[in-house]
């Protein structure tokens, strides 16, 4: 098993698409990239910790390779938005791929370059590729929010503009 860590705005919307893929052992919502150990949701939202909301995925690369995780990640975000994601604004909602080794870095950099050069977006790709830092699991009520609160999750995914953006740019590629 290996780990992959992605920040893509609100972590509620990042869990379900990964959770539904084969070879995924777990998808945990949490915080990473900052300087405060064991931050709370309120601390991260205060924009004083340096942390981003993120998901950490434990996966079997022989079933679902890292390359495919990165490709799925792009379809979940607006990769050109450096100020947050959709309705959620601020540093804690910005995007990043946190790489766990040089192989992941090479894959992420090559994928980002391909997407940037594809012409799919008319602005540059703003997603940072950073070394993985300690990952702190978010509070229990944030974990698998789409299962615990499906009606609110669906309203949020649609109301934030995320679902419309995904449809406009990717169609039904991963549905």
TrEMBL record:
Keywords: Oxidoreductase
Gene3D superfamilies associated with the record: Peptide methionine sulphoxide reductase MsrA
Catalytic activity line of the entry: [thioredoxin]-disulfide + L-methionine + H2O = L-methionine (S)-S-oxide + [thioredoxin]-dithiol; L-methionyl-[protein] + [thioredoxin]-disulfide + H2O = L-methionyl-(S)-S-oxide-[protein] + [thioredoxin]-dithiol
Entry EC no(s): 1.8.4.11
SUPFAM superfamilies linked to this entry: Peptide methionine sulfoxide reductase
UniProt KW Oxidoreductase keyword: yes
Residues annotated as the enzyme's active site: 10
Uppermost EC category: oxidoreductase
Residues annotated as domain Peptide methionine sulphoxide reductase MsrA: 3-154
Keyword Oxidoreductase: yes
Annotated TM spans: none
Family annotation (InterPro entries): Met_Sox_Rdtase_MsrA_dom (IPR002569), Met_Sox_Rdtase_MsrA_sf (IPR036509)
Gene Ontology MF annotations: L-methionine:thioredoxin-disulfide S-oxidoreductase activity; peptide-methionine (S)-S-oxide reductase activity
Pfam families: PMSR
Domain of life: Bacteria
Purpose: Has an important function as a repair enzyme for proteins that have been inactivated by oxidation. Catalyzes the reversible oxidation-reduction of methionine sulfoxide in proteins to methionine.
NCBIfam families: msrA
Homology family: Belongs to the MsrA Met sulfoxide reductase family.
Protein name in UniProt: Peptide methionine sulfoxide reductase MsrA
């Amino acid at each position: 098993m290996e780990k992959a860590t992605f920040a893509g705005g609100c972590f509620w919307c990042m869990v379900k698409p990964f959770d539904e893929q084969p070879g995924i052992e777990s998808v945990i919502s949490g915080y990473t990239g900052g300087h405060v150990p064991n931050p709370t949701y309120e601390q991260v939202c205060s924009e004083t910790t340096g942390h981003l909301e993120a998901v950490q995925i434990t996966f079997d690369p022989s079933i679902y390779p890292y390359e495919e995780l990165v490709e799925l990640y792009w379809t979940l975000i607006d990769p050109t938005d450096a100020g947050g994601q959709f309705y959620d604004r601020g540093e804690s909602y910005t995007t990043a791929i946190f790489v766990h080794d040089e192989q992941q870095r090479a894959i992420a950099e090559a994928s980002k370059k391909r997407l940037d050069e594809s012409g799919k977006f008319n602005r540059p790709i703003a997603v940072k590729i950073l070394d993985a830092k300690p990952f702190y699991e978010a509070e229990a009520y944030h974990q698998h929010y789409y299962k615990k609160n499906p009606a609110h999750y669906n309203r949020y995914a649609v109301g934030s503009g995320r679902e419309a953006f995904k449809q406009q740019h990717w169609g039904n590629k991963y549905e």
